Amino acid sequence: MANLKTLYENLQRAFYARPSELKTCVELLAQLKLGLIEAGLLIPQGNVNFGDLVVARDILEIGALVSIRSKDIPSFDRYFSQLQTFYIDYRTIPNFPPSKREYPIRGLNLIRLLTQNRIADFHTTLESLPADVIAENPYIRHPVSLERWLMEGSYSKVWNAREEAPAEEYKFFIDSLMGTIRNEIASCEEAAYESLPLKDAATLLFFTNQTELTRFAQERNWQLDLSAGLIRFAHKGEEKTEIPKQRLIAASLLYARELEQIV
C-alpha cells in the first residue's frame, strides 16, 4: 500500500493543478488501477478497511473526470461501471461515508446517455435515484431539464444551459448535444430553403461568429456567397419516377371483372 499511497498523492497533485496535468493523470491512473487490483480494492470483497475503500473510490472518480476532460467517453464508461460498487453496494453499509462527487458523476452519466440518444436508458437510470435527489440535486436536475427541453424542441434553452452547467465537465456533453442539434436544424434548412442570409443562418444554428458558421457550412458543402451575404444550399436533383399508368388501369379492370364474377 505504500507505493499505492505515493501514486495516489501524485495523482491528486496532477489532478488539482491549474490546469490539470491530464497526461500525467492518465499515466498514474493506469498504475493505480493495477495497484487497486493487487490490493483487492478495484472490486472489493470481504472485510476491507473503510479508509482504503474511500481512497479506491476517489481514484476511480478522478479517473472518470479525467476521462471527460480528455474527451475519452469509453474510458468514462468503464470508470462509471467500476464506481457502481461504491455508489450502490456500499451505500447500505453503516458509517461508510458518501462521496461529494457521486451526483456530479451520476449527472454526467445521464447527459452521456442523452448525447447517445439512449432515452430509455436515461429514464431507467433516473428511476433508480431517490425522488428527492431528482427534484433537488442540481447535478441531476440539469440533465433532467436538458432531456425535457430536447423533447420539446426548445433548443435555445439547451444552448443557454451551457452557461448554467453545475460543473465544467458538463459543458463537454452539452457541446456534443449542440452538435447533434445543429445537424438536425441544418437538414431542415436544406429541405426548406434554397438560401438564407448569413446572419439568419448563424442565429438559427446558435453560432456566435461567422468563422464557426463558415467552417460548419464547408463541412456540409454549402455555398457561401459573401458578396450577397447568403448561404446557398445544394439541392439534389428530384428523382422522377415513371408511373406505369396503362398497367395499373388494366390490373384494376381485371380485379373489377373478377369481383363481378364472384358476386
TrEMBL record:
One Pfam entry for this protein is CSN8_PSD8_EIF3K
Q: Which PANTHER family match?
A: 26S PROTEASOME NON-ATPASE REGULATORY SUBUNIT 8 (PTHR12387:SF0)
A single Gene Ontology CC term: cytosol
Is Membrane found in the keyword set? no
GO biological process terms on file: proteasome-mediated ubiquitin-dependent protein catabolic process
Q: Which InterPro entries match?
A: 26S_Psome_Rpn12, CSN8_PSD8_EIF3K, PCI_dom
Show where the PCI domain sits: 74-246
Q: Does the keyword Ligase apply?
A: no
Lineage runs:
Eukaryota, Fungi, Dikarya, Basidiomycota, Agaricomycotina
Q: How is this protein named in the record?
A: Proteasome 26S subunit
* Alphabetical list of Gene3D superfamilies matching this protein: 1.25.40.990
Keyword list (alphabetical) reads:
Proteasome
Give the UniProt family note: Belongs to the proteasome subunit S14 family.
